[in-house]
Design goal:
Layout (H helix, E strand, L loop, with lengths): L2 H18 L1 E8 L7 E8 L5 E9 L3 E6 L5 E6 L5 E7 L5 E8 L5 E6 L5 E6 L4 E6 L11 E4 L9 E7 L2 E6 L4 E8 L2 E6 L11 E6 L5 E6 L4 E8 L2 E9 L10 E7 L5 E7 L3 E7 L6 E8 L5 E6 L5 E6 L4 E7 L6 E8 L3 E5 L1
Antiparallel strand pairs: 1-2, 1-28, 2-3, 4-5, 5-6, 6-7, 8-9, 9-10, 10-11, 12-13, 13-14, 14-15, 16-17, 17-18, 18-19, 20-21, 21-22, 22-23, 24-25, 25-26, 26-27
C-alpha cells in the first residue's frame, strides 16, 4: 500500500474512533439573560472532555430532564409559577423539537421520571406539593394527567420533590411532610399504600432517592438534615438501617444537600452538598446495605445541584448552578474516590442527562 494511503487510512481510523467515543449530554437550566433553555454537549468517554455546546431548544426553566426508554424522545419539567411539563422529539443533530406542553397541575415542577414501559410519567410539583401522572402516547406526546396526588393537610405543607417508578410501585419523596410514600398499582390506578414507608425524626427533608437494581435497598438524601437515610426492603416492609451525615466532620456552615446516585456496580454512593460545595463519597456494603463515607471532595464551583455518571462509569459530572460550570471528575474504580479533571462553562446548569 502506498505511504499516502496508509496515512489516509490512519486518519480515517482515528477520526472514526474519536467520533465513536463522543456521546451526547443534555443540560437543563434555569433560564435568564444567559441561559436560554436545554443545551446539548458532546462528552468524550475516553478523555472526559466536554465540547460542542449548542442550544438544543429555547424554552423556559427546563429544570429536570428524562429520556424515553428508546431515547427517541425527551421530557422536561418547566419550573415556572404556572408549572408545565414538556415532551420533545430528539433530532439527529441533537436539537429538540417540542411535541407537547401540558400544565403540570402544580407550582414549580422540579422532577420527572418515566416507568420502564415508557407509557407513564410522574411529575413532582415542589411549591404546591402535588404529584401528577401523565400517560405517554406511542408518538412520545403527553396526554392530560390521569391522576393527581396531594399530600397537603391542614397541619402540614407538602413539598413533593421527586418520584420514581419501581415495577408496579411509585415512590414519592416529600420534603414538606418529611416522608417517602409508596403507591401501588391497583386496577390501573396508583393507590397510596402507607402514610410513610419509614418514620422520620426531626425535619430531615427527603429530597431525592436512589434504589438498587433489585429494589432491596433505597437511599434517601435529606436536604435539611444534610444526611442520607438507608432503607432495607423485605417484601412490602421497610426498615431504616443506617443514617449518615453528608458533611465533613469539621464543616460548620449552612448546607442543603441535593442529589444522590449509586455507581453502576452499586459499590459506591455519591451525594452533593450545596453550601459545603462538595460531593460526598460513600463505600457501600453490598450485603448489608449500610454505607461508610470515604471522601468529601470540592466541586470546584458553587451550589452543586444535580450530577450524573457517564455510561462507562468512569466519570462523574456535576452541575454547579451559581458558578455556571460543569465539572468533570475521574472515578477510581477500586476506591470510588473522585479526582478533579476539568471544567466547562455553562449558564445556570441544574440537571444533567446522558
Amino acid at each position: 500500500m502506498h505511504y499516502k494511503h496508509l496515512i489516509l487510512l490512519a486518519l480515517v481510523v482515528f477520526s472514526t474512533k474519536n467520533y465513536a467515543q463522543n456521546i451526547p449530554l443534555y443540560v437543563g437550566t434555569y433560564t435568564n439573560e444567559d441561559a436560554k433553555g436545554v443545551y446539548q454537549l458532546q462528552f468524550n468517554t475516553e478523555t472526559g472532555t466536554l465540547s460542542k455546546q449548542q442550544l438544543a431548544i429555547k424554552i423556559d426553566n427546563p429544570s429536570f430532564l428524562q429520556y424515553s426508554p428508546d431515547r427517541k424522545y425527551l421530557y422536561s419539567t418547566n419550573a415556572t409559577k404556572d408549572g408545565f411539563v414538556s415532551s420533545y422529539t430528539v433530532n439527529e443533530d441533537g436539537t429538540l423539537t417540542l411535541l407537547t406542553r401540558m400544565r403540570s397541575h402544580g407550582v414549580l415542577p422540579c422532577h420527572i421520571s418515566l416507568n420502564e414501559a415508557g407509557d407513564k410519567a410522574a411529575v413532582s410539583n415542589y411549591r404546591s406539593g402535588t404529584v401528577a401522572i401523565f400517560p405517554i402516547n406511542k408518538d412520545g406526546s403527553l396526554s392530560e394527567a390521569s391522576q393527581i396526588f396531594d399530600h397537603n393537610s391542614e397541619k402540614t405543607k407538602s413539598h413533593a420533590h421527586s418520584a420514581h417508578f419501581f415495577n408496579d410501585d411509585l415512590f414519592v419523596a416529600d420534603l414538606g411532610t418529611n416522608a417517602v410514600f409508596q403507591y401501588e398499582l391497583k386496577k390501573g390506578e396508583y393507590k397510596l399504600d402507607t402514610d410513610a414507608i419509614v418514620k422520620t425524626k426531626g425535619n430531615p427533608g427527603p429530597r431525592h432517592f436512589t434504589m438498587t437494581k433489585d429494589g432491596e435497598f433505597m437511599y434517601v438524601i435529606n436536604e435539611m438534615g444534610s444526611s442520607i437515610t438507608s432503607i432495607k426492603r423485605s417484601g412490602n416492609k421497610f426498615k431504616e438501617i443506617d443514617y449518615d451525615s453528608t458533611l465533613a466532620e469539621d464543616y460548620k456552615g449552612e448546607n442543603a444537600s441535593a442529589d444522590i446516585h449509586l455507581s453502576n456496580d452499586e459499590k459506591f454512593l455519591y451525594a452533593t452538598n450545596r453550601g459545603e460545595n462538595t460531593i460526598a463519597v460513600f463505600e457501600r456494603n453490598i450485603k448489608k446495605g449500610t454505607i461508610e463515607k470515604v471522601q468529601n471532595v470540592s466541586v470546584h464551583g458553587d451550589w452543586p445541584r444535580n450530577f450524573a455518571m457517564d455510561p462507562t462509569g468512569n466519570f462523574l459530572i456535576v452541575a454547579n448552578r451559581r458558578s455556571n460550570n460543569l465539572v468533570v471528575f475521574k472515578i477510581d474504580q477500586a476506591s470510588g474516590e473522585l479526582t478533579y479533571l476539568q471544567e466547562h462553562k455553562t449558564p445556570t446548569p441544574v440537571c444533567l442527562l446522558f
